[in-house]
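Quality-control log, excerpt.
Job 1 of 2 completed; input and output follow.
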Amino acid sequence: MAVVLALFSLVAVNALAASKESERVENSGQVMQEILNVPDNIPQSLLDKADCVIVLPSVIKFAIGLGGNYGRGVMTCRSNDFKGHWGAPTMMALEGGSFGLQLGGQATDFVLLVMTERGASGILSGKVKLGADAAAAAGPKGRDVAAATDVTLRAEILSYSRSRGLFAGISLEGSTLRPDNGANKSLYGKEVQAKDIVLNGAVPAPESAKLLLKTLEKKSPKHVK
């Protein structure tokens, strides 16, 4: 009886974890759809050039005196060496600290464009510090891309934020990005590495990613370099 109860508890815990990750993927799709449907959003030319997109819904900024960011989300890349359709997502984690007086725990949605294969490969391989391991910059929006600085155009990662309805480019330098392979196990039901998901097509996209992939395919079906 004890063994049966233990197995039942394990199955219940695994099902709860899978449900949580599926909800996170669904929320990422909702965020992406909403952001791409507002005026002065991510410039089309930049989205078309992006190899990958990272969506981090409801990232929490916290602490008093010593601030930080903590968030979980997804990364989807174009398949076939970054030239094909948007592929199955890998779960991602954003962590980082910033000094200064910060009060409260405001939630912010982040969207990051990964503009180079080098940037994508670095993120998929392990923890990457933005601004150090990968060149990062606040992304221009709307028609601002025409006036973008050389720093922005050379960046491997362009980052955007949405908080309280306001959408803007934002710098995340100092934060770290890493694949969340524990969450991948929960989502896909087996051990699978971020690199294998994105580069080798190891698993099909889950149903929860339908909105995210449909939105990106509709908005940017073709990769333009």
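Job 2 of 2 completed; input and output follow.
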Amino acid sequence: MTQTLTTQNLASNDFRIRLLIVDDEQTIRRLCMTIGESLGFSCLEAESGDAALALLEEQPVHMVLTDMVMPRMSGIEFLEQVKRAYPRIEVAVMTGHGSVETAVQAMKLGAYDYIAKPFAPLDDLRHFLRRMADKVRLVEENLYLRERSETETSLHGIIGNSTGIQSVLRLISRLKDTRTPVLISGESGTGKELVARALHFRGTMANRPFVAVDCGSLVPTLIESELFGYEKGAFTGALRSKQGLLQSADTGTIFLDEVGELPLEMQAKILRFLQEKEVRPVGSNQKVKVDVRIMAATNRDLDAEYKKGTFRKDLYFRLNVVTISLPALRERRSDIPILAAFFLERLAPGRGVQLSSNAMKALLAYDWPGNVRELENCLERAVALGDQRILEVNDLPSAIAHAVIQAESPGTPESSGRATDLEDIERATIERVFSQVKGDKALAGKMLGISRATLYRKLKRYNIGAREDPPQSTTLQ
């Protein structure tokens, strides 16, 4: 089992190190807690390894200071269990028996360090805990920065010059610093979670928890306990109390993906949570206050669903304060070359992998029922199986390769019109890219995934003007 330890901006004043003291001697526990609290830590205590493990099940902890010699479970056994279940927690050991061998064994098992009892002077313990906390802060800050960086990188998946995607980006910019509920609609694979993450991580709540819940994958009988948590003994198998996902998102954002999949009974409980801003774990009589920003996503038409009675009308209007509608990829085909160039660089960094002219035609001709996610998967497959720098049509899945053949097949008014549409899309795409790179043919070819020779033919065919090549080619950043 893993704890809900959310990466945060550790430079903020909201962050406090949570320290757990484990020792069978109360005087030692109280002394360590006094020193810890003087350093600004939030301190917890347990008199045995068993009690400490039970406590770790219930709430997150950053650091543990444990004695080596305790009844029932030794410090070494406790250390092994903690590092196995909660590898991110730093564990330091105390020994009052001068056993260097035991201390060395503990460090081999992943302990941060050891300190001898009795603590003389007390400043030794204070400096020890301060150094330990500095390491925790450094590790957590790196994790936060990496998560933020990965999120910012993934946000580049929301790219394109089409009217639809530019409208989405404008809405993200306007809503990112608010707590307004947002309903994100769109087909599967259009990037609904990317939009939710952009709204959270680009705004003022970036250092707060972001918890995504896939409502469609939750087992119906376990939905309530997953969302609201449960108390020990609430049902068969509830050996420990567990915090729910809603509570783990406290002060941050809860993202309910595919919210239309929730049963009506659970919709009523979610509505009550949104109205009262509190949760009651299964098996508990106590309610816990929770303050979260709510975002939801769906590939269903919830307006039609509530009119049919399959989705609660009151919950629909509570969620649908602002709607962001994501266009399907087939509705923004002009973005395909830009998306393809982005994915190819991410999948094969520095290798200069490009698409041939015919391969790009196939991508433009295909309808993409799986949207941007399908495009990324298609290119990942092509990069993995292709053995050349230029990806050809036969490197693409057969359904996509067949699309360009159908589009270019003569003999029917429909195929003729489709070919004309493709030419219009191709012309508009080349013009836009060529304008963006200010006539740099090498860069335009790279962004379009075609060779310079093919680009020259296209420029001539569509009568697109160009300036002379610059002395040095611009490099894609």
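Post-run check on job 2. The two ends are 40 Å apart (CA to CA).
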